[in-house]
């Protein structure tokens, strides 16, 4: 093991950092709005299926690649398969990190403004329409979005610069549990609103006629996006995990925690969407117009709103730093840049792209859709094929059993990554290209 590499110091630290990457705006901002646009409960079922059958195995495969190679995502493929074209998958991941963080930071910037507005008590007494107007004002104002995005990007770069133990691990351990508590409180309030049941019905009673190729692809894309898979985050974090830790346990805990938070976010939001008469397919503004309304109707709402938006910023930060880390590890290990320089360079390029995303809605949507629905599932497909067919089953077993315990799930896991997961992803792709008709 390379003694000079930074690493996580404890098992809980590993899980908190990986869960910190997974849990973010993807759960609280993206999941509800994509579900709302794709018909509700039927989407939820597909999403849960993809998490279990594809997400968890891809996560384990990715962690394994990183820990075995002890390198950034590009270097890992080069080391595990010298002279091949596999490192291109690493390049694709680095590219995806640029794309994702540039629109992600724009949304995260809006949450900064929301924390500030909550602090000034701007939402108090406002009707859903007035709250919508506030959102349109922020997201429609290019300058405001750009400045907020830059502030958020600066914050992420500042944390990443200081490395793993003292930056990422320290904060996520305390902050993620706090976020959970507030979401549970929001659930209690949302469920007791008049008219809450229509929201629950939308979320939990599937209407299978709503399923089409696009809904399936969106559910797959959301599963990858939410779990931070297919572009090297988990491989990069895996490279900081010590040999004694169980990768299987990490993959399961992180996936479950992430899914739990997404479902809780859905339960907090949809009853309110229906109670306030908001359209469930309102798009990326959905949570921003719904949540302030719930806080308005809660005892102590002023206080909880501030706390919630601060925690949401933190959840976004623990995800954005993982995206940045993929690029920084690549720049510093492959291109031999100093860590601080690599961090500012990556954040600088991402900010330039972020300016474009804040200015052109169509570019924002293009980056969002292409990364989650194409690049991440494609990356995941290649990752399971690599581990299932090229890494060598003995290596796979050694990594799974590095904690000294027999991995009884070895055979089912191998079956899934060799056959089930790649075939399932390929079918969704082909189906959505309308090449295959069922
Ligand atoms: N999973 C993060 C979220 O849900 C977003 C993310 C995607 C982070 C891909 C890293 C890689 O907010």
The small molecules bound here are: phenylalanine
The secondary structure category is mainly alpha
**CATH topology type:** Hydantoin permease
Shape descriptor reads globular
Low confidence ranges:
none
Strands, total number: 0
CATH architecture classification name: Orthogonal Bundle
Reading the helices and strands in chain order gives HHHHHHHHHHHHHHHHHH
Number of helices: 18
Structure commentary:
With 438 residues, the chain is mainly alpha-helical. It has a single domain, classed as Hydantoin permease, CATH 1.10.4160.10. The protein is 78% helix and 0% strand. It is built from 18 helices and no strands. Helix 1 runs parallel beside helix 12, helix 6 crosses helix 13 and helix 7 runs antiparallel to helix 15. The radius of gyration is 21 Å and the shape is globular. The termini are far apart. The model has no long low-confidence stretch (mean pLDDT 93). The site of phenylalanine has 15 residues, from helix 1, helix 2, helix 10 and helix 14.
Break the fold down into its secondary structure elements and pairings.
Blueprint: H1 11-22, H2 25-37, H3 41-69, H4 73-80, H5 87-119, H6 128-140, H7 142-161, H8 164-191, H9 196-204, H10 213-227, H11 233-238, H12 247-275, H13 286-296, H14 301-334, H15 339-359, H16 361-390, H17 393-400, H18 410-432
Phenylalanine binds next to helix 1, helix 2, helix 10 and helix 14.
């Amino acid at each position: 093991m390379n003694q000079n590499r930074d690493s996580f110091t404890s098992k809980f630290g590993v899980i908190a950092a990986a869960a910190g990457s997974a849990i973010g705006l993807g759960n609280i901002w993206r999941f509800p709005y994509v579900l709302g646009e794709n018909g509700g409960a039927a989407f939820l079922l597909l999403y849960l299926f993809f998490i279990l059958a594809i997400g968890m195995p891809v996560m384990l495969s990715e962690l394994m690649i990183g820990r075995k190679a002890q390198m950034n995502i590009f270097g890992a493929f080069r080391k595990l398969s010298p002279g091949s074209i596999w490192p291109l998958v690493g390049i694709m991941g680095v590219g995806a990190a640029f794309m994702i963080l540039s629109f992600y930071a724009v949304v995260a910037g809006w949450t900064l403004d929301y924390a500030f507005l909550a602090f000034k008590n701007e939402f108090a007494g406002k009707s859903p329409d007035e709250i919508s107007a506030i959102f349109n004002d922020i997201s429609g104002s290019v300058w405001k979005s750009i400045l907020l995005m830059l502030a958020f990007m600066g914050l992420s770069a500042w944390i990443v610069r200081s490395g793993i133990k003292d930056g990422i691990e320290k904060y996520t351990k305390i902050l993620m549990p706090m976020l959970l508590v507030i979401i549970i409180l929001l659930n209690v309030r949302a469920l007791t609103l008049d008219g809450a049941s229509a929201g629950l019905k939308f979320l939990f009673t599937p209407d299978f006629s709503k399923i089409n190729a696009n809904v399936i692809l969106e559910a797959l894309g959301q599963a990858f996006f939410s779990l931070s898979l297919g572009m090297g985050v988990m491989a990069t974090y895996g490279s900081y995990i010590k040999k004694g830790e169980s990768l299987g346990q990490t993959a399961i805990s992180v996936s479950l925690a992430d899914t739990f938070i997404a479902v809780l976010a859905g339960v907090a939001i949809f009853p309110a969407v229906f109670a306030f008469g908001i359209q469930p397919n309102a798009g990326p503004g959905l949570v921003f117009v719904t949540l302030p309304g719930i806080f308005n109707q809660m005892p102590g709402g002023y206080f909880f709103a501030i706390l919630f938006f601060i925690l949401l910023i933190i959840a976004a930060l623990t995800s954005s730093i993982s995206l940045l880390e993929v690029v920084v590890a690549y720049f510093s290990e492959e291109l031999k840049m100093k860590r601080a320089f690599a961090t500012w360079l990556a954040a600088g390029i991402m900010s330039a792209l972020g300016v474009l995303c804040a200015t052109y809605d169509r570019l924002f949507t293009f980056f969002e859709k292409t990364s989650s629905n194409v690049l991440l599932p494609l990356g995941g497909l290649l990752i399971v094929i690599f581990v299932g067919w090229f890494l060598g089953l003995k290596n796979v077993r050694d990594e799974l059993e590095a904690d000294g315990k027999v991995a009884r799930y070895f055979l089912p896991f191998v079956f899934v990554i060799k056959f089930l997961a790649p075939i399932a992803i390929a079918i969704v792709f082909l189906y959505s290209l309308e090449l295959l008709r069922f």
